[in-house]
Write a structure and sequence with these properties.
Elements: H1 28-41, E1 48-52, E2 67-70, H2 76-86, E3 91-97, H3 98-104, H4 106-114, E4 120-125, H5 155-158, H6 164-168, E5 174-181, H7 185-203, E6 208-214, H8 218-221, H9 225-239, E7 243-247, H10 249-252
Parallel strand pairs: 1-2, 1-3, 3-4, 4-6, 5-6
Antiparallel strand pairs: 5-7
Helix pairs in contact: 1-7, 3-4
Length: 259
């Protein structure tokens, strides 16, 4: 006798059937899934162009069944700007890590936001340079050990972490700028809602949108996946508080269903 089953989850249509290269416990895969689900639910797969620069997400084009281009390190906002201006009917998003966006590409992201480029940025903050060996990044926490700060980040000589969401939210060209986290189911659901609202912001021509996602890096942090999730909750969120840092009036009027 055949027993009927209930399908509770299937691979989003925006995903390819490809094995992941991400380390066990890394939440890049969770971020990818959320983007893919949103693109499918909004019927945007055929209209979307993604831009990935150098970093852990350098192979993002292997996973998304959408048009995708590769940008030099830190230059994804510049490439996205060009694509969006030439093809304004497309949905254009960048997928960037903290070493890429907040260090090498700082000038690119600030000026794209200041110009109000109608693109969406998914910013993965895992407090280190994940792909190149776990070096200190602009988002590394005070006292946090990395391969280039083996005694912990010393704020007297190496400065303080840069809070990108707060900083970019001060710019007039920004329509939507928030920070979410991927450390537990509740916050993952909130992250998905934010990603959807960011794409809605772009669809309606309301300016630059950015969703910063606090993410794990168990390999470079020297932790188990479970410990890494706890580190995000206990150590990262106090330094990078979750919240909405800018929601322009036109964006605030958008109603997004809670999925």
């Amino acid at each position: 006798m055949v027993t009927p089953t209930t399908l509770v989850y299937s691979r989003p249509q925006a995903f390819t059937d490809s094995p992941t290269h991400y380390c066990p416990g890394c939440t890049h895969g969770v971020a990818h899934r959320l983007i893919a689900e949103v693109l499918e639910e909004m019927n945007l797969i055929s209209r979307t162009i993604g831009v990935a620069p150098v970093g852990c997400a350098v192979f993002a084009y292997n996973y998304f069944d959408t048009d995708f281009v590769e940008a030099p390190h830190g230059r994804a906002p510049a490439m996205a700007t060009g694509i969006k201006r030439v093809l304004p009917d497309r949905i254009v998003f960048t997928y960037q890590g903290d070493g890429d966006l907040a260090s090498i590409g700082m000038g690119e992201i600030v000026h794209a936001a200041a110009r109000g480029e109608n693109i969406t940025v998914i910013f993965i903050n895992n407090a280190n340079y994940g792909m190149t060996g776990g070096q200190m990044a602009p988002t590394t926490l005070p006292g946090m050990k990395t391969t280039s700060s083996p005694y912990g980040r010393d704020v007297e000589t190496q400065g303080y972490p840069i809070r990108m969401a707060e900083m970019l939210a001060t710019l007039d060209g920004v329509g939507y700028c928030v920070r979410r986290s991927l450390h537990d189911p509740k916050n993952i659901r909130l992250a998905k809602k934010a990603i959807r609202l960011a794409f809605e912001t772009q669809l309606r021509g309301l300016g630059f949108s950015l969703v910063e996602l606090l993410s794990t890096c168990p390999t470079n942090w020297g932790m188990s996946p479970v410990e890494a999730l706890r580190f995000v909750e206990e150590r990262m969120i106090p330094v990078f508080p979750l919240g909405d840092y800018k929601v322009a009036p036109g964006v605030a009027q958008i109603t997004v269903r809670n999925t």
